[in-house]
């Protein structure tokens, strides 16, 4: 909830007088006898400074308001408080909650001061408009003193405390008093005042007596404790001239019972009563009282009458320990205490107790000096947001690899641990370079906690079995806790209890941090991994609130557990097993609470940060999945706030600390502007697979959102169809929707409409994808954007872009199609070959046939071209090499097919096969096709040169080419295994389920845009290069030679020469022609524009793929069979082998 804005300071008399809130009057009780100062206890005597000189002093400073104001200005300047306005009072809006029954919170308070424990009672009234009064005694303010309890009963107060000061001799009220609009007295004394105006404002400070008529409630105190959230005791002590007042010069520093009245940032009244003198303690001084009020949330507060007057009444009963001894008893020895009679009281009335999230009657035990949390718990508005684009605060160079530890104190000093260098790092006062601390025997720490005095508690359990404390003042180390394993989470509560979360032991232990015996007790867990209410499984991050309730990131149970104070059975408040499971957790590792107890969860293996507030659970950072971009995280471990509400995260997988700025304008809803866009999804729109790696078609529209200023905006849809919204930055790639994704939503505003609160940047392209929850749905829709400025919408016609090797591989470039792409959605998982689809069975048969034919082809070709006479030409050497490479190619083709089939059927997988098989297959295939192209080129040259053809030169050139060609091919495709990896796709029964049925795994190639363009060029070179070589060689052999001869032999025309050339060299023409025809299907598919959705025509793509490998099994048919010379050589080789076998 955002704080109500302070009312501009103007004169308090701007509002006309209205009838005040009145309380009914009961019959007057008998007038109580006066008590002389001598009858008071020694504490009260000290409290009032009972010297004769003090008794002659007056109540209130002896100066005018103008004099006080000028002195205040001087004090502000001297004390560096220039940020306070030079006005003598503060005005603040009252909470506008206006229920007929009041709501309040009450707590017991305990503070430890110098080993003395002091109790108190704290009350916070949520709706003070109709339920709070300053009341005088029934007989009037100057007609006697009565017990607070009596006034409370007569006025029907449910909660009451003593209020203003009074003359202990006469019983008359001192200071200003207005009760329910009635001016009881207005002496114009310039002590601190607390009032409520008739136009429902709090006014605290020093007021002008001429403005007092505008108050409905007003009470004067002594010392302005808190001003604008800061202690004002020192300044107020000087302004109110304590040396001249009846209360005396030691009033501020003396320890006594105390009563404070103030308000918080939400406009709620706060009342605090602290016990006074007893056999065990003497109460707080006013400096400590101010600090305590600040810690409880006070914005402004004053000190009321205290000492023996300090009284708290609940439902007619005295509930605090009063200081005055009963008549005739000794205060130092007797436990008998009696309530003092007073004049005015504060009163909460007509109350129906309704507990809010904070439980009434909770004991709040505090150790003074550490009551201020050493870490930041910001108070956010109802609609907080953070810039999704983070800033790298520290990278691997500074923090080392895989940082776990992070802590930020109230002064914004940032602590972490460089585990590699075994150092604690801390950035002080926004320093660029951190200070380094290297404790002795510091090995590997997984957590730290820093107290207000700068002492650092750190885990040292992995090797040394303990938690150590580095004492900042002395630079020394002490052991504070013995453990059996690492403390993956450390926390110190406000009572100095040290908690250690041990993931390996599935338990959380605690000990008092100052306990020399280091006795540990169990805070949560049994030591046995489990998911029962009293069990934990790998607990990591922990957090303890002011009520000592323990929050645990139960890592391996995918949940957040809450253990109430003193209980060992926890409640699952978020994650697996909770009723609040709209967003599932995946190994949560950290948990932090803000000032309003909203949970901030580090969802480690979902690589994001979740905020769980009241009726609002959402991802706030890293909502697009794992990555290293500025808007992405990778295995985050811990989270911490600075005092401005910015979030710092240990981005462990990326070895960095990221900072995400809190956007203060996200709370400004005062001047929202709404922009609108309407359109229609039709069947002419493009489709893509929205829900993952499946074949569903979802129509979508791409909308660019332009803004003039980078701010937060709320987007929501309105349509008759169920819509889904995605926000991207820069570009949108339909084949891989995870690229550049920032946020997504489908049902935030119910009724199937999305609602997204996102940060739109003016310097980059903001893309909104409007699609549908269900496939193949069309219809009209509207989009509304709300923010401080206009948003202009522009529809983009998204180009049909594809990436080679996208994760799901349901769309691809034609040139990038692999057998894996074709068969992925055809092979049924966990099904035997007998029950596979017909396409798969035919593929198996064709693969076996092609391997057998390829084996026969290679043997016969090898027997032919191993002949020494044929190897006198370069052509024979090429073909001998081709007989070997063709066998390697068809063998790798077969291995690749069975690798894909078996891994898809049985879910087994091998990363080495993923990276190597496809690349080796391409190496041998390209080698074989280029060898065939070399044969065609040499034949064309041979025909062209005729008798001038140099056999020796061609033979040397062939050997060099065969040696160099594999290295050249490898160099062009080496990027493929380097970019190949295994992709895992979890399968669920439906998209919204959290339970994963099985995980599909397959090979993917993830290219950057530059590498992808390079890869496309390489593929075309290896495909078109041999094609062109074969085509032009065949054409030249026939047409080029025929033209040469027609010019030399003019007695025959050109057509006759063409026929003669074909008859003479037909064996030379048939070979490249066949290779040309076989490469045509693959070439046509490769030249198809845009994306190819393989699943639409799997038969077509499968046969084109198989045909592209047939040249490797046709070397014998293409080159040997058409040639009489080669056939004759083969027959001779067979006869030679037969003779060798027989002999």
From TrEMBL:
Keywords of the record: Membrane, Repeat, Transmembrane, Transmembrane helix
Entry keyword Transmembrane: yes
NHL repeats: 632-663
Biased composition (Low complexity): 25-39
Every G-protein coupled receptors family 1 profile domain range: 856-1119
Name of the protein in question: G-protein coupled receptors family 1 profile domain-containing protein
Organism (species): Adineta steineri
Stored PANTHER family: N-ACETYLGLUCOSAMINE-1-PHOSPHODIESTER ALPHA-N-ACETYLGLUCOSAMINIDASE
Biased composition (Polar residues): 1-15
PROSITE patterns recorded: G_PROTEIN_RECEP_F1_2, NHL
Main location per the UniProt record: membrane
Compartment(s) where it occurs, according to its Swiss-Prot or TrEMBL record: Membrane
């Amino acid at each position: 909830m955002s704080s109500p804005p302070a009312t501009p300071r103007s004169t308090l008399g701007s509002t006309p007088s209205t009838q005040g809130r009145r309380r009914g009057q009961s019959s007057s009780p008998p007038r109580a006898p006066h008590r002389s100062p001598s009858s008071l206890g020694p504490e009260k005597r000290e409290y009032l400074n009972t010297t004769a000189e003090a008794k002659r002093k007056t109540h209130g400073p002896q100066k005018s308001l103008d004099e006080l104001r000028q002195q205040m200005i001087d004090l502000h300047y001297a004390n560096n408080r220039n940020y306070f306005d030079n006005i003598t009072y503060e005005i603040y809006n009252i909470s506008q909650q206006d229920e007929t029954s009041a709501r309040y919170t009450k707590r017991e308070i305990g503070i430890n001061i110098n080993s003395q424990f002091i109790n108190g009672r704290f009350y916070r009234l949520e709706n003070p408009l109709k339920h709070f009064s300053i009341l005088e005694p029934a007989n009037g303010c100057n007609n006697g003193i009565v017990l607070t309890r009596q006034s409370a009963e007569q006025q029907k107060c449910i909660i009451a405390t003593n209020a203003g000061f009074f003359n202990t001799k006469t019983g008359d009220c001192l200071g200003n008093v207005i009760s329910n609009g009635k001016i009881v007295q207005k002496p114009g004394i310039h002590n601190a005042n607390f009032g409520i105006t008739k136009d429902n404002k709090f006014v605290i400070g020093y007021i002008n007596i001429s403005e007092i008529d505008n108050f409905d409630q007003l009470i004067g105190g002594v010392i302005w404790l808190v001003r604008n959230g800061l202690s004002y005791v020192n300044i107020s002590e000087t302004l109110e001239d304590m040396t001249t007042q009846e209360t005396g010069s030691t009033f501020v520093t003396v320890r006594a019972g105390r009563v404070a009245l103030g308000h918080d940032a939400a406009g709620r009244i706060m009342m605090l009563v602290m016990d006074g003198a007893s056999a065990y303690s003497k109460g707080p001084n006013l400096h400590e009282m101010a600090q305590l009020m600040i810690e409880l949330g006070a914005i402004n507060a004053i000190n009321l009458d205290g000492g023996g007057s300090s009284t708290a009444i609940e439902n007619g009963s005295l509930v605090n320990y009063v200081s005055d001894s009963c008549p005739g008893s000794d205060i130092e020895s007797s436990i008998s205490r009696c309530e003092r009679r007073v004049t005015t009281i504060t009163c909460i009335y007509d109350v129906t107790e309704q507990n809010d999230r904070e439980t009434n009657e909770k004991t709040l035990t505090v150790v003074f000096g550490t009551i201020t949390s050493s870490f930041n718990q910001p108070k956010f508005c109802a609609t907080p947001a953070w810039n999704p684009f983070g800033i790298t605060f520290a990278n691997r160079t500074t923090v080392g690899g895989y940082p776990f530890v992070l802590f930020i104190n109230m002064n914004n000093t940032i602590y972490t641990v460089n585990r590699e260098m075994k150092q604690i790092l801390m950035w002080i006062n926004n320093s660029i370079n951190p200070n380094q601390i290297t404790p002795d025997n510091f090995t590997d720490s997984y957590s730290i906690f820093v107290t207000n005095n700068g002492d650092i508690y750190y885990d040292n359990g992995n090797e040394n079995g303990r938690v150590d404390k580095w004492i900042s003042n002395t630079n020394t180390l002490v052991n504070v806790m013995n453990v059996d394993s690492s403390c993956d989470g450390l926390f110190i509560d406000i009572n100095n209890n040290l908690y250690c979360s041990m993931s390996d032991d599935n338990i959380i232990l605690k000990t008092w941090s100052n306990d020399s015996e280091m006795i540990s007790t169990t805070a949560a867990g049994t030591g046995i991994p489990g998911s029962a209410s009293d069990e934990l499984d790998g607990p990591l991050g922990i957090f303890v609130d002011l009520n000592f309730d323990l929050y645990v990131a139960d890592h391996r149970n995918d949940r957040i557990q809450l253990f109430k104070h003193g209980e060992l059975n926890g409640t699952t408040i978020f994650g697996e097993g909770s009723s609040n499971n709209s967003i599932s957790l995946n190994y949560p590792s950290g948990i932090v609470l803000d000032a309003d107890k909203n949970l901030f969860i580090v969802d480690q293996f979902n690589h994001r940060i979740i905020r769980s507030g009241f009726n609002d659970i959402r991802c706030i950072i890293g909502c697009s999945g794992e990555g290293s971009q500025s808007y992405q995280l990778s295995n985050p471990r811990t989270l911490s706030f600075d005092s401005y509400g910015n979030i710092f995260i240990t981005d462990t997988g990326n070895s960095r600390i990221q900072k995400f700025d809190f956007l203060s304008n996200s709370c400004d809803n005062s001047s929202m502007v709404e922009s609108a866009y309407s359109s229609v999804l039709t069947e002419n729109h493009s489709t893509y697979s929205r829900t993952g790696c499946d074949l569903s078609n979802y129509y979508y529209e791409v909308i660019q959102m332009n803004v003039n200023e980078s701010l937060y905006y709320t987007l929501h849809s309105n349509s008759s169809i169920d819509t889904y919204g995605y926000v991207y930055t820069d570009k949108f790639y339909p084949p891989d929707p995870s690229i550049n994704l920032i946020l997504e939503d489908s049902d935030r505003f119910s009724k199937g409409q999305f609602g997204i609160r996102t940060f739109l940047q003016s310097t980059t392209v903001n893309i909104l994808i409007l699609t549908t929850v269900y496939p193949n749905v069309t219809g009209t829709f509207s989009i509304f954007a709300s923010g401080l400025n206009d948003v202009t919408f522009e529809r983009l016609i998204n180009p049909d872009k594809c990436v080679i090797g996208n994760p799901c591989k349901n769309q691809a470039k034609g040139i990038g199609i692999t057998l894996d792409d074709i068969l992925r959605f055809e092979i049924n998982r966990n099904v035997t070959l007998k029950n596979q689809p017909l396409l798969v069975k035919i593929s198996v048969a064709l693969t076996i046939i092609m391997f057998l034919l390829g084996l026969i082809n290679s043997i016969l070709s090898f027997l032919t071209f191993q002949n020494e006479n044929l190897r006198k030409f370069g052509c024979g050497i090429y073909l001998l090499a081709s007989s070997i490479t063709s066998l390697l190619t068809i063998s790798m083709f077969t291995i690749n097919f069975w690798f894909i089939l078996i891994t898809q059927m049985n879910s087994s997988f091998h990363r080495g096969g993923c990276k190597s098989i496809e690349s080796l297959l391409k190496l041998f295939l390209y080698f074989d096709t280029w060898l065939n192209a070399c044969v065609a080129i040499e034949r064309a040259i041979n025909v062209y040169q005729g008798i001038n053809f140099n056999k020796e030169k061609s033979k040397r050139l062939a050997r060099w080419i065969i040696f160099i060609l594999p290295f050249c091919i490898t160099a062009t495709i080496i990027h493929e295994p380097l970019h190949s990896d295994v992709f895992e796709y979890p399968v669920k029964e439906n998209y919204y389920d959290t339970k994963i049925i099985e995980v599909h795994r397959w090979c993917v190639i993830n290219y950057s845009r530059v590498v992808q363009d390079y890869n496309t060029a390489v593929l075309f070179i290896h495909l078109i290069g041999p094609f062109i070589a074969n085509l032009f060689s065949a054409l030249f052999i026939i047409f080029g030679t025929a033209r040469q001869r027609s010019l030399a032999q003019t007695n025959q025309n050109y057509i006759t020469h063409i026929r003669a050339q074909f008859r003479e060299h037909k064996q030379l023409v048939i070979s490249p022609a066949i290779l040309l025809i076989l490469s045509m299907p693959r070439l046509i598919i490769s030249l198809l524009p845009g994306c190819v959705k393989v699943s639409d025509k799997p038969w077509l793509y499968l046969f084109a793929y198989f045909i592209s490998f047939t040249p490797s099994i046709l070397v014998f048919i293409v080159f040997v069979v058409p040639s009489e010379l080669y056939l004759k050589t083969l027959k001779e080789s067979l006869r030679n082998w037969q003779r060798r076998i027989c002999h």
